[in-house]
Amino acid sequence: MFAIGYFLSALATILNYALVFYMWVVIARAVLSWVNPDPFNPIVRFIHNVTEPVLHPVRRWLPFGFSGIDFSPIVVLLAIIFLQTFLVNTLRTLAARFL
Predict the structure, then answer these.
(1) Residue 72 burial by CB count (10 A; 0-12/13-18/19+): exposed, middle or buried?
(2) Cα–Cα dist 87/89, whole Å
(3) Cβ contact 29:36 at 8 Å
(4) 3-state secondary structure of 44
(5) Are 34 and 47 in contact (CB under 8 A)?
(6) Which of 6, 19, 36, 46 is the most exposed place for a label (fewest CB within 10 A)?
(7) Domain residue ranges of the chain, discontinuous segments joined by +
(8) In this predicted structure, what is the pLDDT of residue 94?
(9) Distance CA 99, CA 95 (A)
(10) What is the DSSP code (8-state) at residue 71?
(11) What is the b/e burial string over 86-98, where b = at least 16 CB atoms within 10 angstroms of the residue's CB?
(12) pLDDT tens track for 63-83
C-alpha cells in the first residue's frame, strides 16, 4: 500500500507545480494586457494560446459593465488557489494515510 501513498504524493506535487506554473502564466497574460505587445512574438502567442481556453469561458460567465476591466484573470487565480488548497492538500493527506 505504500506504493499508492508515494504515487498520490508525487501526483500532488506535480499538480501543485503545474498549478503554480499556470498561475504565473495567467499573471503574465494580465500584465501583457496592460501593454501592447507584438502579437507575432512566440512567447506572447504561447501565453495567449495557453490561457485563452480558460479565460474565455470565465469572460462569458462574468457580467459586463465594469467599464472595460477584465476580471477573468482574478477569477482564474482564485480558482487555482482553491485547487491548490483543497485538491493538493487532500491528495497529500490521502497519501499520508497510505504511508
Answers:
(1) buried
(2) 6
(3) no
(4) helix
(5) no
(6) 36
(7) 2-98
(8) 96
(9) 7
(10) -
(11) eebeebeeebeee
(12) 765 667 888 999 999 999 999
